[in-house]
Write a structure and sequence with these properties.
The protein has helices at about 5-40, 45, 65-80, 120-130, 235-240; strands at about 50-55, 135-140, 145-150, 155-160, 170-180, 185-190, 195-200, 210-215, 225-230. A hairpin with a 2-residue loop joins strand 2 and strand 3. By secondary structure, the protein is α+β, with helices and mostly antiparallel strands. About 25% of the residues are buried.
Length: about 240
């Protein structure tokens, strides 16, 4: 083989090696990008859907009024609740007076004095905060989740950190919320400064929605924690709601 042929062959091999090297670099970069995307934590809002109609399962849910009765009795025996820290990170909830969770419209008027949490009026106010609605209808649109009760009161939950403005419609309560893993968490204030937190979680089979309510009040000795379980309504039940 002549000198010219050897030189030409060497040039061809160098070019082939360069092309192969570029192909390998591109393949490695693509593989690294795919690996990074796969390791990125998934957005729970993209895979967790509470959409649909739900009916309260009384057998599997806590008795909210019994828990309230016990907390009031404990307050009367042991005095007011010690000051607690916040109920977790995330957005600060906003609501209108008298709405705790779905709640019931609360009365206006002055706050409750020391030692008066056992009065009929104040127990009624606290019941309005802890009583779960019998039914929920949930519509989910990306970062917005709307929950409507049988009396057409609606909680508008926003998980994208947007600035929340009070709605002109008193039946619509805009609330900041955030995702804690697969749990949807909301935090808000009651009409007398109560701290109200909800944690919503879907069962693995998607047939039950659990709402864990935590209520802290300076009129109680300890927080009240109430677990309400909702069954997915289907067929005639879903269409009737």
């Amino acid at each position: 083989m002549s000198w010219m042929e050897n030189k030409y062959a060497a040039i061809v091999w160098k070019r082939c090696a360069l092309v192969v090297g570029l192909i390998l670099l591109v393949a490695m970069a693509f593989a690294a990008k795919q690996s990074a995307e796969q390791s990125k934590p998934a957005d729970p809002s993209q895979k967790t859907s509470f959409e649909g109609s739900w009916k309260l399962n009384h057998d599997q849910s806590d008795d909210a009024r019994e828990k309230l009765r016990s907390a009031v009795q404990d307050r009367q025996q042991n005095g007011p609740m010690q000051r607690h820290g916040g109920m977790g990170g995330g957005g600060i909830g906003m609501g209108i007076p008298g709405i705790g969770g779905m709640g019931r419209p609360g009365g206006s008027g002055g706050g409750m004095g020391r030692g008066d949490s056992g009065s009929d009026e104040n127990r009624a106010r606290l019941r309005e905060l802890v009583d779960p609605p019998e039914q929920l209808k949930v519509a989910q649109k990306g970062p917005e989740i709307d929950m409507t009760d049988p009396e057409y009161r609606e909680r508008e939950l926003f998980t994208d950190g947007r600035k929340i403005e009070k709605s002109k419609d008193e039946r619509q309560v805009p609330v900041k919320a955030y995702w804690g893993g697969n749990q949807l968490v909301t935090e808000e204030k009651g009409p007398n400064g109560e701290k109200i937190s909800h944690r919503y979680e879907l069962s693995e089979d998607g047939k039950q929605l659990t709402d864990t309510l935590t209520l802290e009040s300076k009129k109680l000795s300890t927080p009240i924690i109430i677990r309400s379980v909702y069954d997915k309504a289907g067929g005639e039940n879903a269409s009737a709601q």
